[in-house]
């Protein structure tokens, strides 16, 4: 579920950043031209269903210098994470993109890279690195005033602390992240805020259940139901997302 969440919630942000990344000397012809398949937007679009094709296109785009090295590495991270579930490889390319001087010019994209790095380090069992990226991401998110990313790093930190058996501190970070998301969701009628909130509450519920705190876990269900209602009322949720979340709530 963790990787589905990142696919749904983060891929759209990466696309939004990269669709505007084509510049003279680095971009291919306009959409519809023979080389339009080498644009960041198209490669992102096929990263789920055709990841091998996406990687082949990136190889050609790199050879022809149709995209910047920063964009190439960022997209390779995205394809490996979302399309191939190769989290070590995704982390390798995220680190390369993050080390590029271009990353410092785009704090929003740097936040996204740090989010992938924290998540992939968590998945790969490198908990110290995951916490380190969460701390770095939190500092940048607070500096940029990005409440959604701030919440995301708190929740990833909480997941990692649960695996380190630091339950008290983990639930403190869960509560901080969920509190931020509840505030943001009530200010923002879009599906994205409510979906993030639903996911984060569900993670805390699962964490409580896994350590035998069943009554506390059950008490989280009404908050998930409220988040689901907000998602349903948003009106802009992708097809099937509400049904998916409803099934998760029932499960």
Characterize the structure shown:
The protein is an all-alpha fold and 251 residues long. Helices cover 75% and strands 0% of the residues.
Keyword list:
globular, mainly alpha, 251 residues
**What letter string, H or E per element, gives the SSE order?**
HHHHHHHHHHHHH
User: Can you give the mean pLDDT?
Assistant: 86
Sketch the major β-sheet. Answer: none
Overall radius of gyration: 19 Å
Please mark out the parts with pLDDT under 50 across 5 or more consecutive residues, or reply none: 1-34
Number of strands: 0
Distance between the termini: 13 Å
Helix content class = over 70%
Briefly characterize the structure.
The protein has 251 residues and is an all-alpha fold. The protein is built from 13 helices and no strands.
Please describe the topology of this protein:
Elements: H1 2-19, H2 40-45, H3 51-64, H4 69-83, H5 87-99, H6 107-123, H7 127-144, H8 147-163, H9 167-187, H10 191-210, H11 214-219, H12 221-234, H13 241-250
Helix pairs in contact: 1-4, 1-6, 3-4, 4-5, 5-6, 6-7, 6-8, 7-8, 8-9, 8-10, 9-10, 10-12, 12-13
């Amino acid at each position: 579920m963790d990787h589905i969440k990142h696919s749904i919630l983060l891929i759209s942000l990466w696309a939004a950043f990269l669709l505007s990344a084509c510049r003279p000397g680095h971009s291919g012809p306009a959409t519809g031209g023979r080389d339009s398949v080498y644009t960041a937007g198209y490669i992102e679009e096929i990263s789920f269903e055709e990841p091998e094709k996406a990687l082949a296109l990136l190889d050609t785009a790199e050879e022809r210098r149709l995209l910047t090295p920063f964009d190439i590495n960022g997209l390779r991270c995205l394809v490996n994470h979302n399309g191939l579930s190769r989290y070590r490889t995704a982390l390798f390319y995220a680190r390369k993109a993050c080390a590029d001087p271009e990353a410092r010019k785009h704090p929003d994209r740097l936040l996204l890279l740090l989010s992938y790095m924290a998540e992939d380090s968590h998945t790969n069992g490198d908990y110290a690195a995951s916490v380190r990226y969460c701390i770095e991401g939190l500092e940048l998110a607070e500096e940029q005033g990005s409440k959604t990313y701030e919440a995301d790093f708190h929740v990833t930190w909480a997941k990692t602390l649960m695996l380190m058996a630091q339950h008290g501190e983990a639930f403190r970070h869960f509560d901080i992240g969920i509190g931020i998301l509840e505030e943001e969701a009530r200010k923002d009628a879009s599906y994205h805020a409510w979906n993030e909130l639903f996911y984060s509450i569900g993670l805390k519920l699962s964490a409580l259940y896994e350590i035998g705190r069943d009554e506390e876990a059950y008490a989280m269900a009404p908050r998930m139901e409220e988040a689901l209602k907000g998602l349903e009322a948003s009106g802009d949720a992708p097809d099937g997302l509400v049904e998916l979340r409803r099934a998760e709530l029932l499960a």
